[in-house]
């Protein structure tokens, strides 16, 4: 039997704290008029109560599961796409697996920034079509606020925090929802980067891992996105 992939549930979760443009203008050189003119954004949610990426992802997953007759034990695979993980190890997906007590699922992260959900869905689709797995949970989750430089109006004003989750199921080919894909990567780390950890240059007790804040070349990102996505 030829298998297909179908989304059977979807949900999202965002933190409770709303950060307006005026809130950002109070701590950086910007204003509501400039932000709305350049981005159309009036407000965003930010995780100001200590919720990390795995927390948002777990909440979104629970809301998605609640739309089905499934339990966490029915899940075969959990993929979390994020470039703001809780840490380098364990993976954020592993933390979600633990939180859900999805004891039969294996879990891992994919880090492809804005393209994360597309990569996650493509990967889950291939595992489903293999015939070895029936249910996969794909979550895209970010706590961008923990990576921001709140003096940099060219980046910070664009981003909020949140998570979205879908559950995908193996179905007969006539119910398949994944029709086609065209994947692409541009490996230019200078256009967008977040949390870069520099290698050592000398042996010293002062050399502990330090990460950069998120940064992007906004105009170049805009040009690439508006050409490539369509």
Summary of the model, kept short:
The chain has 230 residues and is an alpha/beta fold. The protein has helices at 21-25, 32-39, 53-65, 92-100, 116-129, 153-156, 218-228, and strands at residues 3-13, 17-20, 43-46, 77-81, 106-110, 135-143, 161-172, 192-193, 215-216. The protein contains 7 helices and 9 strands, in the order ββααβαβαβαβαβββα.
Keywords:
2 domains, alpha/beta, Peroxisomal Thiolase, Chain A, domain 1, 9 strands, 230 residues
Please characterize this protein's 3D structure.
The protein has helices at 21-25, 32-39, 53-65, 92-100, 116-129, 153-156, 218-228, and strands at 3-13, 17-20, 43-46, 77-81, 106-110, 135-143, 161-172, 192-193, 215-216. The two termini are 34 Å apart. The chain has 7 helices and 9 strands. Strand 4, helix 4 and strand 5 form a beta-alpha-beta unit. The chain has 2 domains: 3-175, Peroxisomal Thiolase, Chain A, domain 1 (3-Layer(aba) Sandwich), CATH 3.40.47; 192-228, no CATH class. Helix 3 crosses helix 4. The protein has 230 residues and is α/β, with parallel strands linked by helices. The chain is 28% helix and 23% strand. The strands form 3 sheets. The protein has a 5-stranded mixed sheet with strand order 1-7-6-4-5, with helices on both faces. Strands 2-3 form a two-stranded antiparallel ribbon. A two-stranded antiparallel sheet has the order 8-9.
């Amino acid at each position: 039997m030829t298998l297909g992939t179908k989304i059977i549930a979807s949900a999202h979760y965002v933190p409770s704290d709303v950060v307006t443009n005026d809130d950002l203008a109070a701590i950086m050189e910007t204003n509501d008029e400039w932000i709305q003119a350049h981005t159309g954004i009036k407000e965003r949610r930010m995780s100001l109560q200590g919720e990390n990426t795995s927390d948002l992802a777990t909440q979104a997953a629970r809301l998605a599961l609640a739309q089905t007759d499934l339990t966490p034990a029915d899940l075969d695979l959990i993929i979390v796409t994020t470039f703001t993980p809780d840490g380098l190890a364990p993976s954020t997906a592993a933390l979600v697996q633990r939180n859900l007590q999805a004891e039969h699922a294996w879990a891992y992260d994919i880090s492809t920034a804005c393209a994360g959900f597309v990569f996650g869905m493509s990967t889950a689709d291939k595992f489903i079509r293999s015939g070895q797995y029936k249910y996969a949970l794909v979550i895209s989750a970010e706590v961008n606020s923990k990576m921001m430089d709140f003096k940099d109006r060219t980046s910070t004003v664009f981003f909020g925090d949140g998570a979205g989750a879908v559950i995908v199921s193996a179905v007969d080919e006539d119910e398949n929802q994944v029709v086609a894909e065209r994947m692409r990567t541009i490996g230019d780390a200078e256009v967008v980067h977040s949390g870069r950890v520099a290698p050592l240059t000398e042996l010293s007790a002062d050399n502990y891992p330090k990460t950069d804040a998120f940064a992007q070349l906004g105009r170049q990102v805009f040009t690439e996105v508006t050409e490539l996505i369509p």
